[in-house]
Amino acid sequence: MMMIKVIFCNHSSVSSALNALPCIIIEDCVKPLKPGLSDVRLGYISKIISLVGGLISFSLIFIVAAVGNILPVRNATIQRLINSY
Q1: How far apart are the first and last CA of the chain?
Q2: More confident call, 55 vs 75
């Protein structure tokens, strides 16, 4: 039961981030550059931004899986930094 709660909390966080992404981009980037856009057109742009953001975040899963475990690399880098001083 606890695992289900963790999964749903994670899903909620990802959903919130993907919903906030188009809002921020539209308010900060699109509206200042194109102030005369209608609400319908802004809605379409919002959906496209959300789709692109979702595809990018989904593709990061495969990139992270391909990279594998970076912990040994991180530990070796920290060890080199400590030994250099």
Answers
A1: 48
A2: 55
Judged by DSSP in three states, 35 sits in coil
Q: Is the dihedral of CA 20, 25, 30, 32 positive or negative?
A: positive
**Total residue count of the chain as it appears in this document:** 85
Per residue in 18-53, pLDDT tens?
A: 888 899 999 999 999 999 999 999 999 999 999 998
Distance CA 83, CA 34 (A): 54
What are the two backbone dihedrals, phi and then psi, of residue 68, each rounded to the nearest 5 degrees? Answer: 85, -155
Inform me whether the pLDDT recorded for 72 exceeds 80: no
Cβ atoms 30, 44 nearer than 8 A: no
What range defines the domain where residue 69 resides? 2-84
CA 39 → CA 25, 36, 52, distances in Å?
A: 15, 10, 20
Q: What are phi and psi of 9, to 5 degrees?
A: -65, -40
